[in-house]
Prior knowledge:
By secondary structure, this protein is an alpha/beta fold. The chain has helices at residues 12-15, 22-29, 46-66, 82-89, 103-109, 119-127, 139-148, 158-163, 178-190, 192-207, and strands spanning 37-41, 71-76, 95-99, 112-116, 131-135, 170-172. The longest helix has 21 residues, at 46-66.
Amino acid sequence: AGANVHYVGHPLLDFAVPKLSKSESYTKFQLHDQFPIIGLMPGSRIKEIESLLPIMLDSMKIIKTNIPDSQFILPVACTIPNDMIKNFIKPYPYVRVIDSSDVYNMMSISNLIIMASGTATLESTFIGTPMIVVYKVSFISYIIMKSLVNPNIRSTTLPNIIAGENIVPELLQDKVVPNNIAEITIRLLKNPEELEKQRKDLYRVKEQ
């Protein structure tokens, strides 16, 4: 448009920084540093919680069966009623529930995060934590959004869009089922070289 513009970087780079050391975070969240830590981030809207959290929890049961030592941590946004979360996780006493103000500390010690598509994917990118991205909306919403999006953009995941390739596994709509999430999670956790490759790819995105 002819404006005199200078790009100075994404503001999240200044904010997406853990305040605690890793050892302090392990202690605060009562997690063991020798066992896999998986973050669950279903989103900050009630509809997202209703749509994604039950699927994440069902996938968690499959993961726990295959990797019994796995640990799970769930940061809850201030926009979500506590009672709502309590009802969802009541059958899962091993899920650590934390306040969203601790999300960067959680990201810094997680081996992997299962998260809703959105700004959090960039935050995880900047901290360098591997992720699996999921998203599911109503069929009508999906059709409307699909018609509005540039057909050249084949991903909804910000690090993938920036990288120009699928560096982060992404599951959308009918692919968002417990078995798919669990299968990818188990594969990544049992193949550390895949996790390390994603970390390196995320670092390149951060540099961009």
